[in-house]
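Thought: the user wants the 3D structure for the chain below. I'll pass the sequence to the structure tool as-is, report back what it returns, then summarize two notable features.
Action: structure_tool
Action Input:
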Amino acid sequence: MIKRLVFLTLTSFFFFACASMQENYNMVNCKYDISQVQLTDFNPNTISMDVSIAISNLSKTAAAAVKRFDGNLYVNDVNVSALTLKDVRVTAGETKVVKSSLDIPLSNLGKLVGLVSMGSVSVDYVVRGTIYFTTPIGDLPFPVTIYQSKKI
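Observation:
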């Protein structure tokens, strides 16, 4: 009886570990887009904005999951802010939009603010970072770069 209990416990552990690993693997195959960058507040010292990232799970059968994403937002190749997402799960065949609110010191944007105020300019947003997956041997990193260009 004890052997059966141990066997069932180990079997269920490996089943759930494999399901979790499949969700982690599916996150690598997802499509990532910056869906929106929205200015929420502006004062003489900081700019607050929400950066929304659309994650499309291309798998039709299994969910995708990630423990955390640590990265940076770049505006016209200038690193302006750190960006973090945690515990994201996207069901099979669906798209989930996750939002990160950022407070960016005006000094980080440099001359970009002056260019925008003078007229039409192209703004390139890049989110570059690392997705971390939870595995039985620890967290595994996977690099991700998401790009969007806007004409202002």
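Final Answer: Structure generated. The helical segments are 2-28, 106-109, 112-118. The longest helix spans residues 2-28.
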